[in-house]
Amino acid sequence: MSFDRHLAEIAREYPEWTIWRSDAGRWWATRHHPLSSAQREAGCAMTIDADEPEGLRQLLREQEERANTADP
Fold first, then answer.
1. Whether pTM exceeds 0.85
2. CA-CA distance, 56 to 47, in Å (whole number)?
3. Which of 23, 37, 40, 68 has the most CB atoms around it within 10 Å of its CB?
């Protein structure tokens, strides 16, 4: 699958994040909104990165789970 297609799919799956691939080839995601103190305490991050698209998807799933447990 092409790099652009991976970007588009991940962006559709996680609309609250901006997804991109760096010139060095790493995959990145940054949240659109600031974290609450509860989310920070739950281990949420504003920006995450991975070596490949599937690794980024896994990190995004983990981040979403952490955010959901932190939110009342």
1. yes
2. 11
3. 40
**What count of residues does the chain have?**
72
Q: Please state the rounded mean pLDDT for residues 6-29.
A: 95
Handedness of CA 24, 26, 49, 16 (dihedral sign): positive
Side chain identity at 64, as an amino acid letter?
A: E
Residue 18 phi, psi (nearest 5):
-100, 130
The residue type found at 19 is: I
CA 61 centroid distance within chain? 8
CB neighbour list of residue 29: distance below 8 Å, 6 or more residues apart: 10, 14, 17, 18, 19, 20, 47, 48, 49, 56, 59, 60
Give per-residue pLDDT as tens, 33-60: 999 999 999 999 999 999 999 999 999 9
